[in-house]
Specification:
single chain; mainly alpha; GGA_N-GAT; ubiquitin binding
Amino acid sequence: MLKQQGIVTRDPEDPYAQPSEENPEEDKTKDITIFQDEEKVKALARLLKSSHPEDLQAANRLIKTMVRQDEMKMERLVKRNTEIETCCNNIKLLTEMLNHYSPSSPFSG
C-alpha cells in the first residue's frame, strides 16, 4: 500500500536475510548510494563541465553536501541496526528467563 501511494519506492531490506548468491554484483551496487539522486547527478555533471570557477565551486559544495547526506544516512543505518541487535538480544534474554521461570520458585514474589 505504501508503494502504491508513493511513500515507499522499494521493499525494506531484511537485516537478517542471507546475501543472495544468485547475483553477487547486485549487492555491490547497493553500497554505492551517493549518486542515486538523478537530478543532483545531472546538475553535478553540468557544473563540472563548466569552465567558470563559480560553477566548479558550486560542484564542490554539491559533492560535499551529497557526501554529508550519505554519511548521515549511514549513521542512521548503523544506529538502526544497533537498536535492532539490542532488541534481539533483549528478546533472547527474556525468552531464556521465561523458560527458566518457575511459579513455585522462592524468588517469584
